[in-house]
Specification:
The chain is an all-alpha fold. It is about 60% helix and about 0% strand. The chain has 4 helices and no strands. Helix 3 (about 40-55) crosses helix 4 (about 60-65).
């Protein structure tokens, strides 16, 4: 399946919603599942790939970097604290 390229607004909304769900106590897995249900089918494929990477033990920033065709505007150094 071809990956959906998210514009900067879509990326910001996704990351904001992910953060909100995490703040509310949902696990990252639950949060990604909920977000994939809310998004278009092709965007859900990207979220599924991110979730699969996390299940394999990869850090979130690596998963987002791997999905860089979808997250082309994201500045990954922001996630490194």
């Amino acid at each position: 399946m071809r990956r959906h390229k998210w514009n900067s607004t879509q990326q910001a909304v996704f990351l904001k919603n992910l953060g909100t769900l995490l703040d509310k106590g949902y696990s990252i897995s639950e949060s990604l599942t909920l977000l994939s249900l809310q998004n278009k089918r092709n965007a859900s494929a990207t979220i599924k790939t991110i979730k699969e990477d996390l299940v394999k033990g990869k850090p979130l920033f690596e998963s987002l970097e791997r999905a860089k065709n979808s997250f082309r505007y994201i500045r990954l150094p922001l996630f490194c604290f």
